[in-house]
Amino acid sequence: MATFDSGGVDINYLDEGAGPPVVLVHGFASSLQGNWRGPGIIDALTAAGRRAVALDCRGHGRSGKPHDPAAYDGTQMADDVTALMDHLGIDRADLVGYSMGAILSASLLVRRPERLRSTILAGVGDMLLGGSMPRQRSEAIAAAMEAESGADVADETARGFRVFARQSGNDLAALAAMQRARRGGFDPAKLHAVALPVMVLVGELDSLVGSGARLAAAMPGAKLVTVPGDHLTAVAKPEFRQAILTFLAEASPLAA
Fold first, then answer.
1. Of the given ranges (2-6, 19-23, 121-125, 188-192), which has the lowest mean pLDDT?
2. HEC states along the chain?
3. In-domain check, residue 147
4. In a domain, 83, yes or no
5. Which residue of 106, 165, 166, 231 could cross-link 29, Cys pair, CB 3.0 to 4.6 Å?
6. What range defines the domain where residue 95 resides?
7. Is residue 148 a part of any domain in this protein?
């Protein structure tokens, strides 16, 4: 793996395989290893004749971890994705985002559609139509990251994120700063006018993100696929990996 500078933050990434590029953007408190390498998605893409490009989002994995919320404000995290594409000389790519990564992908879908061939919004539902995670939930997660102990966290969802973050070896102060940032910076209403192929991919037991069906219905021609699992487990299911490959084969076929 390698790094590049994006707005003063070192971004770790991998670039493997040959063929049409697929850019992968992981979820909160995870990493390219946890979301994409570990579940076999990178290997599946390269075996299918595609180029897999994945980054550790700022604050995660082997990328830089600022403790200043301003480093995560607005569209900076989404813009790291197009900065990586520029760094690698990629004009257009298929884009796959999970959870937080799906929110970042939606930002690019409405702001930079000319850089994309298709988009998979995974691990997200109609919460996305509000543009970002509700502020109350972000603040609860930030407080959980800053708590002396997980036992001090009353909010069950926030406590679950803290447990996952610690298990993944994260910098809790960086994750708290991210949650306190004013992220977003895109108009979710523009999702109603997207013209690119889109798939919404969610676990059938995922109750964290709202309705995948309502999100898909809000975008013209978007496809909804459900797979086994909940918010934390769906990404590791073979059905999740296969859904990505099937969608890409239809929406962005390999050159003959």
1. 188-192
2. CEEEEECCEEEEEEEECCCCEEEEECCCCCCHHHHHHCCCHHHHHHHCCCEEEEECCCCCCCCCCCCCHHHHCECHHHHHHHHHHHHHCCCCEEEEEECHHHHHHHHHHHHCHHHEEEEEEECCCHHHHHCCCCHHHHHHHHHHHHCCCHHHCCCHHHHHHHHHHHHCCCCHHHHHHHHHCCECCCCHHHHHHCCCCEEEEEECCCCCCCCHHHHHHCCCCCEEEEECCCCCCHHHCHHHHHHHHHHHHHHCCCCC
3. no
4. yes
5. 165
6. 2-131+187-251
7. no
- The pTM for the full model equals 0.95
Report pLDDT digits (tens) over 141-156: 888 888 877 676 777 8
How would you list the strands of the sheet with 9-16, edge to edge?
2-6, 9-16, 51-55, 21-25, 93-98, 116-122, 198-203, 223-227
The pLDDT value recorded for residue 217 is: 96
Number of domains in the chain: 1
Whether 10 is covered by a domain: the verdict is yes
Average pLDDT score over the chain: 93
Distance, in Å, from the CA atom of 70 to the CA atom of 60, rounded to the nearest integer, reads: 16
Give tens-digit pLDDT for 178-237: 999 888 788 889 999 999 999 999 999 998 889 999 999 999 999 999 999 999 899 999
Whether residue 256 is predicted with pLDDT greater than 60 in this model: the reply is no
